[in-house]
């Protein structure tokens, strides 16, 4: 029976192979979409792991700093370091924005951090860590920056002194690490024109420009041009304490929201990328339906083209099970060709995607099983037509 199915495939091999290639491209897109979702989940896990934090202290009643905006004063970190169970605490600021290099824009997440503390890059693949208080940066290799490149962030230029890897935001944007003071200025301070206008408004306000208080106006204007806010405080807990044991007193006495690693993982994966996961799932369903329709149409067309030969087989006593097996083998062969082409295609074009595409062996195995089941179901229409053929048609 294998020989009979093979001979029939060789008779129209060009159509069969081209159909397998087209089906393979659809399967490749399907595997890539699954890899995009896996990559989003892996980016979220990498973000949490690279922060090297056990607790995220953020603005009260917010789910920051990755899912929504959070702003707290930078002096909160000093009180955090005195809380029971806190081993290390550090300020951190996050800002997704466009930076410029050689006149070209690059979307990155700018991270303000304290060198050697949670939130700073844990390792480098080239260069050195930041040693100056201003105008130095460490970039993820995905940015395309090289050592010595000058990157413009708002009004200032930064020199890339180090390169790291797999430091990305939850959206897949590569990170650019800068000193905390520079990040605060970039994120929270206004441009020069806005500062001049605010100073004029403040000077025109009699409450701040009193004749008997000569230093009041200068103090208020100085406060307007200084930034003392960060997005979060990252905390590492001391041995012998559980995350909840440390988080509870902070929530109670500091009036801030505290998220553990499990809670932050739930925010990033279950809530932040939930809509993207649903969209990817819909695309997978649509692609599966289209692939099944293509296989069903091709197998049905091939079967309709050899109805007289099937009638001859029935006339000489060939069993229905044998004829059904021949059609099923052709459908499964089409699925195997398509899956092989799709797997190679996804492996080749996956690294070219702007987002991280993670192709897991388990997803490939599941895709192979789903492809074979889809092809088997798609062949049922052609099998039903073949089994209804009248043996008398062979001599009619």
TrEMBL record:
It is a multi-pass membrane protein. The keyword Kinase does not apply. It comes from Hydrogenophaga pseudoflava. This is FtsX-like permease family protein. Residues 282-391 form the ABC3 transporter permease C-terminal domain. InterPro entries: ABC-4/HrtB_transporter, ABC3_permease_C, MacB_PCD. Pfam families: FtsX, MacB_PCD. The keyword Cell wall biogenesis/degradation does not apply. Keywords: Cell membrane, Membrane, Transmembrane, Transmembrane helix, Transport. The lineage of its organism: Bacteria, Pseudomonadati, Pseudomonadota, Betaproteobacteria, Burkholderiales. It is found in: Cell membrane. Residues 17-250 form the MacB-like periplasmic core domain. PANTHER family: ABC TRANSPORTER, MEMBRANE PROTEIN, HEMIN TRANSPORT SYSTEM PERMEASE PROTEIN HRTB-RELATED. The chain crosses the membrane at residues 16-37, 280-302, 323-345, 365-387. GO terms for cellular component: plasma membrane.
């Amino acid at each position: 029976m294998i020989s009979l199915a093979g001979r029939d495939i060789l008779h129209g091999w060009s159509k069969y192979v081209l159909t397998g290639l087209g089906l393979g491209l659809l399967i490749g897109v399907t595997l890539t979409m699954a890899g995009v979702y896996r990559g989003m989940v892996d980016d979220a896990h990498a973000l949490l792991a690279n922060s090297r934090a056990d607790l995220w202290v953020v603005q009260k009643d917010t789910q920051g700093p990755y899912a929504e905006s959070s702003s707290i004063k930078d002096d909160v970190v000093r009180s955090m370091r005195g809380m029971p169970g806190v081993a290390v605490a550090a300020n951190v600021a996050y800002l997704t924005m466009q930076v410029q290099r050689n006149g070209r824009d690059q979307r990155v997440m700018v991270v303000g951090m304290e060198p050697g503390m949670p939130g700073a890059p844990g390792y480098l693949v080239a260069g050195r860590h930041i040693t100056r208080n201003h105008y130095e940066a460490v970039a993820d290799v995905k940015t395309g920056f090289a050592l010595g490149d000058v990157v413009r962030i708002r009004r200032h230029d930064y020199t890339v002194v180090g390169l790291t890897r797999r430091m990305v935001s939850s959206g897949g944007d590569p990170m650019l690490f800068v000193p905390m003071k520079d990040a605060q200025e970039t994120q929270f301070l206004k441009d020069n024109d806005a500062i001049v206008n605010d100073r004029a408004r403040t000077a025109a306000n009699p409450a701040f420009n009193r004749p008997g208080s000569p230093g009041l106006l200068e103090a208020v204007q100085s406060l307007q041009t200084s930034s003392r806010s960060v997005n979060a405080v990252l905390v590492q807990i001391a041995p012998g304490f559980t995350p909840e044991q440390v988080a509870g007193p902070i929530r109670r006495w500091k009036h801030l929201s505290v998220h553990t690693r499990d809670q932050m993982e739930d925010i990033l994966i279950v809530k932040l990328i939930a809509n993207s996961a649903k969209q990817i799932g819909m695309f997978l369903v649509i692609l599966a339906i289209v692939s099944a329709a293509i296989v069903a149409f091709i197998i049905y067309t091939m079967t309709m083209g050899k109805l007289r030969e099937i009638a001859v087989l029935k006339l000489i006593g060939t069993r229905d099970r044998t004829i059904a097996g021949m059609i099923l083998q052709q459908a499964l062969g089409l699925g195997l060709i398509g899956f092989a082409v799709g797997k190679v295609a996804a492996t080749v074009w996956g690294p070219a995607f702007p987002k991280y595409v993670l192709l897991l062996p388990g997803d490939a195995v599941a895709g192979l099983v789903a492809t074979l089941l889809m092809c088997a179901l798609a062949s049922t229409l052609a099998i039903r037509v073949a089994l209804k053929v009248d043996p008398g048609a062979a001599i009619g």
